[in-house]
Amino acid sequence: MSPKITTESLASALAARADEGRPVRIGLVGAGEMGTDIVTQVSLMRGLEIGVIADVREKNGFEAVKIAGLPADRAVAADTAKAADKTIAADKIAIAESFQIACMAEQVDVIIEATGNPNVGAEVALLAMEHGKHVVMMNVETDVTAGAYLRHMADKAGVVYTLGAGDEPTAAMELVNFVRSLGYPIVAAGKGKNNPFRREAVPSEYEEEARRRNMNPRMLVEFVDGSKTMIEMTALANATGLVPDIAGMHGPAAPLSELHKVLCPVADGGMLSRKGVVDFTVAKGVAPGVFVVAEMAHPRLRERMHDLQMGPGPYYTFFRPYHLTSLEVPLSAAAAVLWRQAHMRPLPVPVAEVGAVAKKDLKPGDVLDAIGEYCYRGMALAVPEAQRLAALPLGLAQRAVVTQPIKAGEYLTYRNCKADPKLAIVRLREQQDAHIAKNAAA
């Protein structure tokens, strides 16, 4: 799908929609920390409105409206899509327990999925597309599991599937596009990790910190144990063709000033076995930013870069010092509707996978918990390595049953685990695998 070519800014396009009385209307699924941010952010933007907030805890939707500073009477409970449409027509926000209502409401233009649950993300995306809605996927867990097929389904449905602006993968994608447009080969792209890295972290150890930071302990641990970093960099890999150099990536303690000296080939004093990788650094001063290390071989260009105080080369670090997470996501909703533009979407064939490594010994019959809990953590892998291991994708691990003993530190695989066939994400991944295999054989 080709983006619309225009010199019009997104702000002016949204202003025009506001002046016409035709705001872009969002169906928001998930009213947790990020979802509440989105409600607040959208309340400040012309030409963009929240039409439906869907959350299994209906009170979360009402609380999000309150936190945003909107009048309490703007939020109205709706138990059907028809009731939601009537509520939107009355210039109010429909609050629903079921995501189906958001996806089926006729006045909703675009769905923002913000639950973080891989299975829910799959169900929401498929139903939204079925009803002609564009999809902004904040749920990167779903994207790394079956994003290539969701892109395919969106193309068939004539809608946009995109990851949301503001998250680290999409922020890094902006730099990748910038550097590639200038013709510079990319050596590495990635992010700074902004939490301590403890691979065996579990929620019970982080309850106090989670309360202090107004976070869910499971979500906090997903960051701390590295799973979120593996997920985010795999999403970047699958949208760019860059790959993890080794299982789990290197993750050096390289400060900003040293990134181009560390994330470069071994032959040039770095640690990479190849060029064109995704990675991250745990050094302070890089998070919450993202980076691209690029190569500039031509002496004339290196002379100019030296004049610009960018160093002697041949490797240079391009850096964006921030990402605004949920605050930027509404821009993706607007771009999808107004310009049919995706800020970031997977390539048709993935190049990376997030596998899962056991945090503790597991025995046959154990039913696995969720990402960021007690049983496993994520591990970024190049697809050939994931296939060699028969690695179970991280997004399929929840509710999977252990079929063979697994020691702490070993991979969860299709040989020692059985994914739950009742889950939509499991079926969707099977469809993705079959679709890729069919096209490869054609």
Please tag this protein with its features.
442 residues; alpha/beta; Rossmann fold; Type Iii Antifreeze Protein Isoform Hplc 12; 7-stranded parallel β-sheet; 5-stranded mixed β-sheet; 16 helices; 16 strands; 17% strand; disordered N terminus
Mean pLDDT rating? 96
CATH class of the largest domain: Alpha Beta
Rg computed from alpha carbons, rounded to a whole number of angstroms: 22 Å
Going across the major beta sheet, what is the strand order?
A: 3-4-2-1-5-6-7
Number of strand elements: 16
Shape: globular
Classify the secondary structure makeup into a structural class. alpha/beta
Tell me the count of domains. Answer: 3
Can you name the CATH architecture of the largest domain?
3-Layer(aba) Sandwich
Let me know the CATH homologous superfamily of the largest domain: NAD(P)-binding Rossmann-like Domain
Terminus-to-terminus distance: 22 Å
Q: Output the number of helix runs.
A: 16
Give the DSSP E fraction (strand runs of 2 or more residues): 15-25%
Largest sheet: 7 strands, parallel
Unreliable stretches: 1-5
